[in-house]
Every structure is written in C-alpha cells, then in structure tokens.
Amino acid sequence: MKNKLISITVAGSLCLVTGSGIAGTAGENYFGLQYGYGNYDEEGISETYEPTLLVGRFGRFLTPNFTIEGRLGTGLDDDTHMLPAFQNRDATLEMDNMFGLYGTGHFNFTESSSIYGVLGVSQVKLTASLPDFPGLKSQEENSSVSYGIGVDIGIGSRWSLNVEYIRYLDKDDFDLDVGSVGASFEF
Fold it and tell me: Which residue among 24, 134, 182, 184 is least packed, with the fewest CB closer than 10 Å?
C-alpha cells in the first residue's frame, strides 16, 4: 500500500510540470475544513485505533497547478480498545493536534475539478492512556514526511468539496493514515 500511495502522489505532483488544466489562479488563496477519520497502526499491537479529527487548511496557488498549503488540526473523538498485552484492560488513543506544511500538484479533469497529490511534513501529538489508571498517560510528538492523494470537486465559482487520503505519519514501527471529506473556499 505504501508504494502504491507514493506512486500516486508522485504522479499527482507531476501535474506541476505538465501544466495540464487550470486548477486555480496563480496568487489566489483558499481556506478549507476537513473532517478526518484516522487509522493508527503500531507494530506489536493487534488493534487499529481510529480517532477522528478536524483539520483547517490554508493555501496559495503559486501556479495554476501547484499550491503551498499549511494545515492545523485537532482531535475530536478518541478510540479505545481492550488490549491483551495490558491484562485485557482498555487502552485509549487521542490525537491532540497536528500541523504541517505541504506542496500539492493539481491535475484538472474538468474546468472546476481536479485530482491532486500532496507531499510535505507533519507534526502530530498523540496521547495514549489506560482509563482504569487515570494518572497513567503517555504523550508523544512525532514528525514525518507526509503524502497523499485527493479530489476537489467544484460546486460553484469559489467553492469545492474534497475527498482525501493522506499518510500523516510514516515511521518504522507505526503509521497514521487519515481519510477525510471537506470543503474549501477560494479568495
């Protein structure tokens, strides 16, 4: 899956070079919000944690096919699973916050809709805890190269809806993927 996602991201980023379509106007800004559903996997833990988050996006079209984008996110819902490694006690994962900086290459498939590839760097703060032991918590901040793919569907002269899949953290022993839906406004 990792190699497939990298290939898709690289292909999407090549839109910067090809100049196909007009995804935006150079110098134009945009702001958006996304609701994301996370998928956190860690080596040695059989359960997959699925916290949710809200992400704000702010970007600027440097060319019609390439943007620089900043993101800031916060966790909404934690996820809890019973883990045999902790004597069948519940363990909770909370996504506290995330931020990052990304480049996106766009390829228009209609006048107002595009497929895009995302490549950048993210920092994510996570908290793991055992609800049976309220004082026992572990917070970690991790940064990583991030990559993904998305689709923007224009619904007006300035609005678009989007669907995206991105790997915010890609570490040797754990990763965090997020599938999200959202909307953005160009100004």
Answer: 134
